[in-house]
Amino acid sequence: MILHKHQIAEILRTRLDKILLTMKILHIKDIKEFLSSLIDVPSEANVINSIKFLKSLNAFDDNENITPLGLHLARLPMDPQSGKMVLLSSIFSCVDPITSIAASLSFKDAFYRPLGIFFSF
User: Fold this and answer.
1) What pTM, to 2 d.p., does this model score?
2) What is the CATH number of the domain that holds 41?
3) Containing domain of residue 58, as a range?
4) How far apart are CA 65 and CA 58, in angstroms?
């Protein structure tokens, strides 16, 4: 494990899906140009993969414009994949189980135990 002197910028550590949707709500036309002007530039492969992923969710059209679905996904306080799942659950009348699944997917692993913390029962 490599320890860095400074923490790596968050834009280099996280998925770009939600960030790209937020950029489109803010009317930023050229995503790649805007991201290239940042201090810490995410890799082009990550940007392209996020755009492809948002297109596969139908959040972006072929011209990388935000769709009505993408607009709703950008306003939800969750990742786009879980957001689409929750939106579709209302259409198919299965909101209760899907919101439980979405909540569990967005939370940390339930079986994770940090070092040094012991539970006694």
Assistant:
1) 0.79
2) 1.20.120.1080
3) 10-106
4) 10
